[in-house]
Amino acid sequence: MPNRTVFRISGAEAQDFLQGLVTNDVTKLDKGLVYAAMLTPQGKYRADFFLVPAGDAILLDVATPLAAELKQALTMYKLRSKVEIEETDIAVSRGLGDVPDGAFADPRDPSLGWRGYDGQLGDDNVDWDTLRVAAVVPESGVELTPDSFILEMGFERLNGVDFRKGCFVGQEVVARMKHKTELRKGLAQVVVEGSPPVGSEIVAGKKAAGTLFTQAEGRGLAYLRFDRASDDMRAEDAVVRFKPA
């Protein structure tokens, strides 16, 4: 799987270190992969990644364009913790069907198959964008950007945040969005008639209603203002229809 970087986080305090930073409960590693994010203190997205059990260490599988900044942030928070953060040459693979020995089911959605970190042969013939659009799963650097709030991007549904684990960076903002407000914007699946560019503005009448991102087989992922979303919108020359479940 190209464009992924894997860090090894080790040391006597590795698990406690991550537990205080990331959005999910690191103790769940005894059950498999943990999908999580690291946020800014203002509660905005910094990076999403998978945490992988690896004996006495924890692997962190992140999109390569985000790797350098994420390592810098982790190093800043490390201070005097007994933690080592090192980049590895571990290759990431993924596939569908039965989970191979040593691989792990993708925790975001069953349709996304498995991820491997020990030389498992992945499936190069899968249209992963089609699967992501069908399951409404955002991608690092596409739907997920520095302006994103993770609850608007579906992280609770995707098993990427735990509200019972205790504090993490940006936790107050996320908790406030969870308990005190109704989400007025968010990621949703839309029907697309046409082929507008990724990042096209969606308009309803003359009002901005959102942004269209990944598209596959006549459907797409869109970040929408729900109060303006309808089944009669446009993005460039394409017709965009939102039909909430």
Word description of this protein:
- This protein is of the alpha+beta class and 245 residues long.
- It has two domains: 4-180, Gyrase A, domain 2 (2-Layer Sandwich); 185-241, no CATH class.
- Helices cover 16% and strands 33% of the residues.
- A six-stranded antiparallel beta barrel has the order 9-12-11-10-13-14.
- Strand 3 (45-54) and strand 4 (57-63) form a beta hairpin.
- The radius of gyration is 19 Å and the shape is globular.
- The two termini are 33 Å apart.
- The mean pLDDT is 95.
What would you say about this model in short?
With 245 residues, this protein is α+β, with helices and mostly antiparallel strands. Helix content is 16%, strand content 33%. A hairpin with a 2-residue loop joins strand 11 and strand 12.
Number of helices: 4
Give the class from helix and strand content and strand pairing.
Answer: alpha+beta
Provide the CATH topology of the largest domain: Gyrase A, domain 2
Q: Which segments are poorly predicted (pLDDT under 50) over 5 or more consecutive residues?
A: none
Give the overall shape: globular
User: How confident is the prediction overall: mean pLDDT?
Assistant: 95
The number of domains is: 2
**Which CATH top level class of the largest domain fits?**
Alpha Beta
Strand content: 25-35%
Strand order of the largest sheet: 9-12-11-10-13-14
**Topology, number of strands:** 14
Computed Rg: 19 Å
Q: Mind summarizing the main beta sheet?
A: 6 strands, antiparallel, barrel
